[in-house]
Automatic annotation (TrEMBL):
Domain OmpA-like: 168-294
Name of the protein: OmpA-OmpF porin, OOP family
First and last residue of the signal peptide: 1-24
The organism's place on the tree of life at top rank: Bacteria
UniProt keywords, alphabetically: Cell outer membrane, Membrane, Signal
Cell compartments where the protein resides: Cell outer membrane
């Protein structure tokens, strides 16, 4: 990859001049921020907005983001920005190719009332003439997990505030249940060698990254095939097994809890024959290790 001067790129994006040179460095985490992690909650005095642009939005030009007609950020494909505003009515817009006059500031096509204590997920919609597309939590987290933060652009939006989080930030590590266990299995003797290796690697990563292990939640998720009560029990059994292996790997037992979401938090929807559903539902079968990072 061609190397670019980080300070020069920061100047370019701060001025709205997000160039192809900046885009070429989009995968450089030191320049453009870390990969997305689930955001924490905000107090009732704030509303939080996660605005993102997927890699499927074609074009090398930046999408300029405006809040109440003022510049907030510039997003290339595969980037997101997170910010807070006071509760109430605000306008949002995301415009491509509106330089050099930045007329997007005058064309705010979307206004809504944002409630305090809530987080809103919106994405760039290139076909909506600047109007963002609001999406639900499940879709947003599925799309955001491969995106990187836009960390080097200076917001000029006076409505934007620093978020005052009410919960500790967390990091999620998802382990595929299909890697850990055979279909429908959950016990210690059912876990595969590949699954044990995945858990060992996760323990090594947590120790290497120096993450503060104040609280770790192990959450079992299942697909929607079968009865809800059975899935809830299966998710709990799998979470219990993974928790036990994490403890045996040296993580502190007192800080580890296990719970089940059953099939209540699926990330994909499937249809077809039973065999087709089992294959399609693989992303739903997972165990998430959620680590409090502060």
């Amino acid at each position: 990859m061609t190397k670019f001067n980080a300070s020069l790129i920061a100047v370019m994006v701060a001025g709205g001049l997000f160039t192809v040179a900046a885009q070429a460095a989009v995968n450089n985490e030191k320049v453009f921020g870390a990969a997305y992690q689930p955001v924490a909650s905000v107090p009732a005095s704030q509303a939080q907005i996660v605005y993102y642009r997927t890699a499927q939005v074609a074009g090398s030009d930046a999408t300029h983001i405006y809040v109440d007609g003022e510049y907030q950020s510039a997003l290339l494909p595969g980037m997101f920005t997170t910010f807070c505003v006071s509760p109430g009515s605000h306008s949002l817009g995301g415009f491509m190719k509106d330089e050099p006059y930045y007329k997007g500031k005058e064309m705010q096509p979307y206004r809504d009332t944002f409630a305090g204590g809530k987080t809103y997920y919106v994405k760039v919609d290139p076909d909506a003439l600047g109007r963002p597309l609001q999406v639900n939590l499940q879709q947003a987290q599925r799309e955001l997990k491969i995106l990187k933060a836009q960390a080097h652009t200076l917001s000029r939006a006076s409505a934007v505030e620093n978020c005052r989080y009410t919960a500790q930030p967390t990091m999620d590590y998802a382990l595929s249940s299909d890697v850990l266990f055979n279909f429908g299995k959950a016990g210690r003797n059912d876990i595969s060698n590949q699954g044990r290796q995945a858990i060992s690697e996760l323990i090594g990563k947590l120790n290497k990254d120096g993450v503060q292990l104040n609280r770790i939640q192990v959450i079992g998720h299942t697909d929607p095939i079968g009865k809800a009560a059975t899935n809830l029990r299966l998710g709990q059994q799998r979470a219990n097994t993974v928790r036990m292996l994490l403890i045996e790997g040296g993580l502190p037992a007192r800080n580890l809890s296990a719970s089940s979401a059953g099939s209540n938090e699926t990330v994909v929807q499937c249809s077809g024959s039973r065999a087709e559903q089992i294959s399609c539902n693989a992303p739903n079968r997972r165990v998430v290790v959620r680590v409090q990072t502060q």
